[in-house]
Amino acid sequence: MIVDFSKLSYIKIGPKIEVKALHEDNYENEFVIGRATNTLISNNPPKLAILDDRYKFIDIKNGYLKVGAKTQNRTLYSFCKRNDIKGFEFLAKLPGSIGGSIKMNAGVKEYEISNSLLAIKTLKGWVEKKDINFDYRYSDINEPVFEAIFELKQGFDYELDEKLKILRQNQPLEPSLGSVFKNPKGDFAGRLIEKVGMKGMQKGGIKVSEKHANFFINVGGGTFEDMMFLINEAKKRVFESFGIKLEEEIVIL
Fold it and tell me: In 50-157, which residue ranges form alpha helices assigned H by DSSP?
């Protein structure tokens, strides 16, 4: 299939190229794109694939929650809210799909998708959570995720739901890839970027958000090169000023 990443990508950057519809029998070491919510794609990326639509489902089975990896985070959030299931309240404003969220252990504050995870289905078959290393915005999963099984706990937490929505009101609405950098231990990437004078800085069509400095937004016509300039500038300035090496949370292809 042909995908125009300047339309699909959340930051509206990327080429129009051929992408494989991936299932368990045709993987050939492609990089798997979910919703391109945290992926910056150059004009010359590696071979890309998107999960086949057969992996877009939610089932309650044998007392567990079984979810296809192509299911959007917000779809799972809505399902859990309707069915009074707790543990997924943080997905309300989290873009992307379940497979990508598991691979990067996505979350909001201490609420992470690995918390309720029991097992994932990969090319090797089913892999239990205890055999996967998860950390802050990290897992050691290095192959496609096709399905996942989660704990099924009743009691959707409306108070937590509201709290998390308020927490995310400081994030810009313009096209972006979310947080560009991981927060260094004991600090915040946005605070450091602001301290080195980059809040509001613009290169071409990409701007460091004035609402939250760890969000780089596309204000119109932004390019891969514009984004990379600001990423490298932030890393350089923060290291020179604070001796801290910022690490990208986004994936760069």
Answer: 73-82, 98-103
Q: What band does 82 get if pLDDT is binned at 50, 70 and 90?
A: very high
Beta strands in 170-238 (DSSP E): 202-203, 206-208, 216-218
Least Cα distance to 186 among 232, 244, 231, 235 occurs for: 244
- Give the whole-angstrom CA distance, residue 236 versus residue 230: 10
Per-residue pLDDT tens over the stretch 96-139: 899 989 998 988 888 899 999 999 999 999 999 999 999 988 89
Instruction: Report which residue type is found at 209.
Output: S
Cα 211 from Cα 95, distance rounded (Å): 19
- Residue 45, domain extent: 2-53
Would you tell me how many other CB atoms lie within 10 Å of the CB of residue 111?
17
By annotation, the residues acting in catalysis are 137, 179, 249
State whether 81 and 19 are in the same domain. no
Tens digit of each residue's pLDDT (9 = 90 or more) over 18-39: 999 999 999 998 999 877 888 9
Tell me whether residue 110 is exposed, middle or buried, using C-beta atoms within 10 angstroms of its C-beta: 0 to 12, 13 to 18, 19 or more. exposed
Contact at 8 Å (CB) between 34 and 74? no
Structure tokens at 237: 């300035």
Residues 25 and 122 reside in one and the same domain: no
On whether the CB atoms of residues 48 and 17 are closer than 8 A, the answer is yes
Which CATH number covers residue 217? 3.90.78.10
The DSSP symbol for 184 reads: P
Report how many domains make up the chain. 3
> What is the chain's length?
253
- Asked whether the CA dihedral 19, 24, 25, 29 is positive or negative, the reply is positive
